[in-house]
Write a structure and sequence with these properties.
Shape: globular
Largest sheet: 9 strands, mixed
Number of helices: 10
Helix content: 40-55%
Bound molecules: NADPH dihydro-nicotinamide-adenine-dinucleotide phosphate, ketopantoate
CATH topology of the largest domain: Rossmann fold
Radius of gyration: 19 Å
CATH architecture of the largest domain: 3-Layer(aba) Sandwich
Structural class: alpha/beta
Number of strands: 11
Number of domains: 2
CATH class of the largest domain: Alpha Beta
Order of helices and strands: EHEEEEHEHEEEEHEHHHHHH
Strand content: 15-25%
Length: 291
């Protein structure tokens, strides 16, 4: 299979080196055209060179795009300007949600949701935490279509363990909830995930979770607020030493994904005729604390 990994971020680089490890043909699509025609990624003390390719693409290609939520609309726009050849698909991976995303997803799009952890240190990619992943069709009307067997098998070999998920949106809502229940609090208290237990956030977390559950149900997804808060506590314990991705973004003066997490909940709740004040307050506070 031909693979095109979008960007040289943490998750994309991790996938690129692992696809290469199992013998797949992998190129990289950088954001700008004026780069050298190879890109180097260092992994486990090996220097790997990848060819560079931009759209349009001539041959069937599997696109792997692990990008920030705020880059998704622009990326889908790029794809629309350069339609992919028959037999191609696009695998998207990002935290949070966009308004109207079902209508802007190409028919061949899949979501890849992961609990693996990775970060970049210059050209080096570090696989910081082993996890598992879920793959499913992005468009709700395709959710129950059969799984693309070869694509699934290659992704599973590259970065196990992969689960096929006809209910990928349920998985995405769950991940969104966990991020909403942890990330903004780490920014506000400027602390590691594990240090959150020293702060009195239980009531706030419950309100955040209740608001998420209301909206999820409004959109046809069943979640339980008590279970979400318990799950968030478990994640906090298991990642006690980590700085959340949102706190890292704030410290490194990068844009955060808050607009697509608690911001998404607040805006969508208003649009659905109710308010989500706990999510709204976290959204506003993180915006104040970031660049
Ligand atoms: N890192 C992790 O461990 C995990 C991350 N996630 C989520 O996955 C997503 C990706 O995370 P991560 O890899 O850390 O993010 P990064 O910011 O490290 O990587 C994103 C990459 O995509 C590039 N990019 C964005 N749009 C385009 C485009 N149109 N063309 C070419 N390149 C593009 C960016 O380029 P540029 O540098 O120019 O912006 C950057 O290199 C996020 O939503 C994150 O929350 C989820 C689980 C774990
Ligand atoms: C689960 C958590 C909070 C782990 O740090 C995470 O996904 C993040 O930092 O974005």
């Amino acid at each position: 299979m031909h693979w095109l990994v979008v960007g040289t971020g943490a998750v994309g680089s991790l996938m690129a080196v692992n696809l290469r490890r199992i013998g797949e043909h992998v190129s990289i699509k950088p954001r700008v055209t004026a780069t050298p025609n190879t890109i180097e990624i260092i992994h486990a003390a090996h220097n790997l060179e990848f060819g560079v390719q931009q759209f349009p693409i001539e041959q069937p290609t599997q696109i792997f795009a692990a990008i920030k939520a705020y880059d998704v609309a622009h990326f889908l726009d790029e794809l629309q300007q350069a339609p992919l050849p028959e037999g191609s698909s696009v695998i998207l991976s990002y935290n949070g949600m966009l308004e109207n995303e079902n209508s802007i997803m190409p028919a061949s799009a899949l979501h890849w949701v992961t609990t693996h952890g990775a970060y970049k240190n210059g050209k080096e990619v570090v696989h910081a935490g082993l996890g598992e992943s879920w793959l499913g069709w992005a468009r709700v009307e395709h959710a129950s279509s059969s799984r693309p067997a070869e694509l699934f098998s290659v992704l599973n070999n590259a970065l196990p363990l992969l689960n096929w998920s006809p209910a990928i949106n349920q998985r995405r809502w769950y991940k969104l909830a966990i991020n909403c229940l942890i990330n903004p609090f780490t920014v506000i208290h400027n602390c590691r995930n594990g240090e959150l237990i020293q702060h009195n956030i239980a009531d706030q977390q419950h309100q955040v979770a209740e608001e998420i559950c209301w909206l999820a149900e409004h959109q046809g997804i069943q979640l339980n607020a008590d279970n979400l808060v318990e799950s968030a506590k478990r994640v906090i314990k298991n990642t006690a030493n980590n700085y959340s991705s949102m706190l890292m973004d704030v410290r490194q003066q990068r844009r955060t994904e808050i607009d697509y997490l608690n911001g998404f909940i607040a805006r969508q709740s208003t649009a659905a005729g109710t308010e989500a004040p706990a999510n709204e307050a976290l959204w506003r506070r993180v915006l104040e604390l970031s660049v």
